[in-house]
Amino acid sequence: MTVIDCQDLRKKYKRMAALDGITFQLKDQKITGLIGRNGAGKTTLLKILAGFIRKGSGDVLVFSSNPFNNLRVSGNSILVDDQMSFPDSLTLADILGMAPDFYKRWDTELANNLFKYFKLNPKQLHSRLSKGNKATFNMIFGLATRCELTMFDEPTNGMDEAVRSDFYRALLKDYIAHPRSIMISSHHLAEMEHLLEDILLIHKGKVVFHQSLEEVKEYAVALQGTTDLVEKLAAGKEILHTKQLDSQRNYVVIKKEEMPVIDGVTTQPVSVSDVCMYVTSDGKGGIDDVFK
Ligand SMILES: Nc1ncnc2c1ncn2[C@@H]1O[C@H](COP(=O)(O)OP(=O)(O)OP(=O)(O)O)[C@@H](O)[C@H]1O
């Protein structure tokens, strides 16, 4: 089943293009990482998919329907972000108690068990929660809805390291038991990489690639060695990143292709988070370019 189908999706804020022709499809039940630099358009895309804001032009279908103000979409999807708000008069216990009325697959046992594990106070008002506890409660809520399309926008913002690690584990365990389409935008790609099956990388409102994690791991290769040898080997190749290691040695990341073996140059894999950082970087040397 096609869960999401975006074709040339565009959205402008005044004259600024936040989404500039996004095309991708989400077909199977997978955990997809929505990755991109600050301002890439991740939140805008998620809000359109959740039906919170209107698209500009192009097509967007969620469960084969336009998601904006659509009851079928809102009943089967959830966007968990730090702007989730609940009526001020409701305590956390009230919110959990009312959730089954809105989400048909709501799992009360999961919600209660996670709630106890994270030692949240059932009498507290959502608006009074600390940043980290609000993120934790929102995560519990998002997981317990078991929505067919569950989207998290920077879910771990504010969580301490232990809670982040528990969140990743809870998400994975629940997903394995109850597969569904999950999309997570996060700046902590390295620490949640083990969860992801696919990566949708966007930059300046455009899709850079939509690939499996295994494909992204094979996307680039790093060459390290004496500057003249590395430069010779990298000549004519698509260079993604360069770093001068010392006066004689260089480190160059290129798009992966068959490489001849040359004495004095080693080839190394490039991590998924580094690939995403390099291909969305405007300069090739990163912050070092500023100090040249
Ligand atoms: N309500 C708004 N009004 C005007 N411009 C906006 C609005 N919301 C977002 N933008 C702009 O649209 C672009 C995309 O923003 P968006 O929040 O979607 O990016 P993001 O990838 O989620 O960024 P970050 O990782 O920093 O949260 C940015 O340039 C942002 O300034």
Automatic annotation (TrEMBL):
Which keywords belong to this entry?
ATP-binding, Nucleotide-binding, Transport
Which CDD domains does the entry link to?
A: ABC_DR_subfamily_A
Q: Is the keyword DNA damage assigned to this protein?
A: no
What is the top-level taxon of the source organism? Bacteria
Q: What Gene3D superfamilies does the record tag this protein with? A: P-loop containing nucleotide triphosphate hydrolases
**Any one GO molecular-function label of the UniProt entry:** ATP hydrolysis activity
Q: Does the keyword Oxidoreductase apply?
A: no
Q: Where is the ABC transporter domain?
A: 4-229
**InterPro entries, per the entry:** AAA+_ATPase, ABC_transporter-like_ATP-bd, ABC_Transporter_VariousFunc, P-loop_NTPase
Show the PANTHER family listed in the entry. Answer: ABC TRANSPORTER ATP-BINDING PROTEIN ALBC-RELATED
Q: What is this protein called?
A: ABC transporter ATP-binding protein
**Organism for this UniProt entry:** Psychrobacillus soli
